[in-house]
């Protein structure tokens, strides 16, 4: 037991004897430790390829050596006897050969049992000949018994080389030797050679009966004349006569087979399905069939399959499919509804009756059943029966109410409806419309308590409040128009205040209930109210919500844009409310009042324009444009005294205003109060003291014929405002229009003006025309030359120069000036 687990000692001389032993036949070095499948350089030879066989043969030929043939070059590749001749023939190879020999013997035995071979073959094999030789001999015998066509005609092909051209042409075509083709070719050849055939007796008899003429004669054997073209024409005529007769019968009502007027239209109206469409329908039908078979509880599949058959014009198949779908999916309302659509009204009623048994809560089914009823009473009965099953359907209540002709009955139904469905805004609003104003107010209050988040109820309350005093306004007697208008205006303002307060409370209440509508939504509601005839409610909505979601510094611009957009959309009350809000916030801006006045002038009344302007110049007393607009509106309306009163008030606020003085003078002159106009202008020259005031004074004096007064005013004005060219022009024109004309004084006035105002084109032109009028064309021409030098790029001067030359008769000079001007301005435009 002491030696257990120890290794027995082996002497050293015996330990390494295995190194001198031969390796086993199946030994592979390294196989025990997994070193198999490796290939080394010693196994495959050197890396560089040696010379090819062609190179070796060429080298041997140069040296005169004979090429040694390869003994294995002509070896049969199927012969495996010499493939392993260089290897060691071991015991396992011998065993393998014995196995394959037994296999070959077995296969030969089976082959002998399966097929019969000739006695010669068996004899050959019995004599010890191999199987391959026996098979080769059998194949040769088979070829001898059944030779191929190629082999049979081999000798004839070889003799074709001795044929000449004539023999080649004499060989017939292979296609002409078959039966029908040969007869056709023979007949064609006979026709080409001039042969003809007699016409059948039936054709000739038919032509004679139809009384047709013969225009062509065939040389037949019996001398019969035939004309096939005429026979064809006769057939067409007979067909035409038959069609005409059928047309006459159809028009008389005796025939129903042909409609000559409508049958072409009927053909055009028919939809002919192409092969592609038919194929698509078949494919879709197969897909839907697979769908409903795999999932029979899928209702859309049944509906799609029935719709496909309807599209294919197969109503019977569609009804059958949808009926099966109703059986498979009895709880689906769409299947029942589609089945009712595909059937006649009588059958649809039966189908919907069955549907109600399976889906009694389907509103869609009940409405379809009511629609199929012919009279109103039956529809009412169906809808009231539906309300017993579905009492909380708003749509059913609406349809029931719409069928009622008596408003009282409709009101009773709606009262019951809002009790059953207290959260329906539409039912509450409909009930309020059917009630009296007093009761409608209580109805809307109840609705507001039930639905505190509905803005529609608040808007309806505002519209109700707006309509309440309408009857009172109509009862006002129009004995005094002014008093009536004042009373109506006061009542309307009071009403507007109430509606404004109501909408302000509405916005606050909705905000408390977490209902936040955007300002765009509120503006849309205001536009809807204006369209429905509630302008005060629309204005109240705008006033209460226009400031939402707008920064304070952007309010004026945004509100003006809202007003402009509403005005373009013809929502004038909404735009007016926007302007009102802008004027309340930015009343110290004169241009805001001006835009509001322009809006009222375009879309309002004269009184509204005056009201806006009066409020505007009251808030901005130094805004001259508002005073002037108010005075102009009064003057245009024919109220001259009112315009003068406004200007008088404007003088108190703007003592030195040139525009107000001139407007007052214009109104006085237009009213033929020239003395007052002169006094106003004289006062203006003392207070305003502007060149326009002096000019207007001179013009008025000239119009009144006070030439000396006008020249005096002009002399004083020129001393103060010498650079104002119109003063010089008026002065020169006064001298020129005098009787007789004072050419020298006029020339002096224009010359003084040109010295003070060398850039004034009208002064140069007036001076040249004065010289031309006095007959001094040369002086006019020279004056225009000076003008063009002082103002070289002014086209008016060039045109005036050309006109002077044309009026003087110098056409060539005019053309020269015109060419120079064109060249100068072309250079100017090209450089600029």
Identify low-pLDDT runs: 1-7, 212-223, 470-479
User: How many helices does DSSP assign?
Assistant: 45
CATH level-four homologous superfamily name of the domain at 276-414: Tetratricopeptide repeat domain
Structural class by SSE content: mainly alpha
CATH topology of the domain at 276-414: Serine Threonine Protein Phosphatase 5, Tetratricopeptide repeat
Major β-sheet, in short?
A: none
Secondary-structure arrangement, i.e. CATH architecture of the domain at 276-414 = Alpha Horseshoe
In the CATH scheme, the class of the domain at 276-414 would be: Mainly Alpha
Estimate the mean pLDDT confidence: 79
Strand tally is 0
Rg result? 61 Å
Strand percent estimate: under 5%
The shape is: extended
Helix content: 55-70%
How far apart the termini lie comes to: 128 Å
């Amino acid at each position: 037991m002491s030696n257990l687990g120890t290794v027995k000692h082996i002497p050293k001389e015996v330990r390494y004897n295995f190194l001198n032993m031969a390796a086993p036949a199946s030994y592979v070095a390294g196989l025990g430790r997994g070193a198999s499948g490796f290939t080394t350089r010693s196994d495959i030879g050197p890396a560089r390829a040696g010379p090819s066989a062609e190179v070796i043969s060429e080298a041997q030929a140069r040296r005169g050596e004979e090429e040694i043939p390869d003994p294995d070059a002509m070896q049969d590749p199927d012969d495996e006897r010499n493939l392993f001749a260089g290897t060691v023939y071991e015991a396992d190879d011998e065993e393998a050969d014995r196995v394959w020999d037994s296999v070959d013997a077995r296969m030969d035995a089976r082959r002998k049992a399966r097929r019969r071979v000739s006695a010669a073959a068996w004899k050959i094999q019995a004599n010890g000949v191999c199987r391959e030789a026996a098979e080769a001999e059998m194949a040769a015998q088979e070829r001898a018994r059944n030779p191929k066509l190629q082999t049979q005609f081999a000798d004839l092909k070889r003799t074709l080389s001795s044929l000449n051209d004539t023999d080649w042409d004499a060989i017939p075509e292979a296609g002409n030797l078959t039966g029908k083709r040969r007869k056709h070719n023979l007949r064609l050849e006979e026709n080409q050679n001039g042969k003809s055939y007699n016409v059948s007796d039936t054709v000739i008899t038919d032509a004679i009966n139809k009384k047709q003429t013969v225009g062509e004669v065939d040389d037949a054997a019996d001398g019969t004349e035939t004309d096939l073209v005429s026979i064809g024409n006769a057939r067409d005529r007979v067909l035409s006569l038959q069609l005409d007769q059928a047309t006459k019968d159809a028009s008389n009502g005796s025939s129903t087979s042909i409609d000559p007027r409508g049958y072409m239209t009927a053909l055009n109206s028919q939809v002919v399905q192409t092969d592609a469409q038919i194929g698509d329908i078949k494919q879709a039908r197969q897909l839907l069939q697979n769908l409903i078979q795999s999932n029979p509880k899928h209702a859309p599949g049944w509906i799609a399959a029935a719709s496909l058959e309807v599209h294919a014009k197969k109503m019977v198949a569609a009804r059958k499919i949808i009926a099966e779908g109703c059986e498979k999916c009895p709880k689906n309302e769409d299947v029942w509804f589609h089945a009712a659509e595909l059937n006649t009204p009588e059958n649809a009623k039966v189908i919907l009756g069955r549907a109600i048994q399976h889906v009694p809560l389907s509103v869609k089914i009940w409405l379809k059943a009511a629609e199929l009823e012919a009279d109103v009473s039956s529809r009412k009965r169906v809808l009231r029966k539906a309300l017993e099953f579905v009492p909380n359907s708003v749509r059913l209540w609406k349809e029931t109410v719409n069928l009622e002709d008596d408003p009282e009955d409709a009101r009773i139904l709606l009262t019951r409806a809002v009790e059953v469905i207290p959260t329906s805004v539409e039912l509450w609003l409909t009930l309020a419309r059917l009630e009296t104003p007093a009761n409608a107010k209580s109805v809307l209050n109840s609705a507001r308590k039930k639905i505190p988040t509905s803005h529609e109820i608040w808007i309806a309350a505002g519209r109700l409040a707006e309509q309440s005093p309408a009857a009172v306004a109509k009862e006002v007697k129009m004995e005094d128009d002014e008093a009536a208008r004042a009373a109506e205006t006061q009542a309307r303002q009071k009403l507007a205040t109430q509606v404004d307060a109501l909408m302000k409370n509405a916005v606050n209440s909705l905000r408390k209930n977490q209902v936040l509508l955007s300002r765009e939504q509120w503006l849309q509601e205001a536009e809807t109210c204006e369209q429905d005839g509630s302008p005060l409610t629309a204005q109240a909505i705008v006033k209460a919500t226009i400031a939402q979601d707008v920064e304070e510094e952007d309010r004026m611009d945004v509100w003006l844009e809202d007003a402009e957009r509403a005005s373009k959309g013809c929502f004038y009350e909404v735009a007016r409310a926007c302007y009102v809000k802008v004027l309340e916030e930015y009343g110290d801006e004169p241009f805001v009042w001006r835009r509001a006045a322009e809006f009222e002038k375009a879309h309002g009344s004269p009184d509204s324009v005056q009201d806006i302007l009066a409020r505007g110049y009251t808030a901005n007393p130094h805004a001259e444009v508002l005073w002037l607009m108010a005075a102009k509106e009064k003057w245009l309306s024919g109220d001259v005294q009112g315009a003068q009163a406004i200007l008088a008030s404007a003088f108190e606020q703007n003592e030195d205003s040139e525009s107000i003085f001139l407007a007052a003078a214009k109104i006085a002159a237009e009213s033929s109060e020239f003395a007052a106009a002169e006094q106003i202008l004289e006062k203006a020259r003392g207070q305003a003291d502007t060149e326009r005031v002096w000019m207007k004074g001179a013009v008025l004096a000239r119009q009144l014929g006070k030439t000396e007064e006008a020249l005096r005013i002009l002399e004083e004005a020129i001393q103060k405002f010498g650079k104002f060219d119109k003063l010089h022009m008026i002065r020169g024109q006064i001298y020129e229009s005098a009787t007789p004309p004072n050419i020298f004084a006029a020339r002096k006035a224009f010359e003084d003006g040109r010295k003070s105002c060398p850039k004034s084109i009208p002064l140069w032109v007036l001076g040249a025309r004065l010289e031309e009028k006095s007959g001094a064309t040369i002086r006019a021409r020279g004056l225009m030359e000076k003008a063009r030098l002082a103002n070289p790029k002014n086209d008016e001067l060039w045109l005036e120069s050309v006109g002077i030359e044309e009026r003087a008769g110098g056409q060539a000079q005019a053309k020269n000036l015109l060419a120079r001007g064109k060249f100068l301005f072309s250079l100017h435009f090209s450089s600029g």
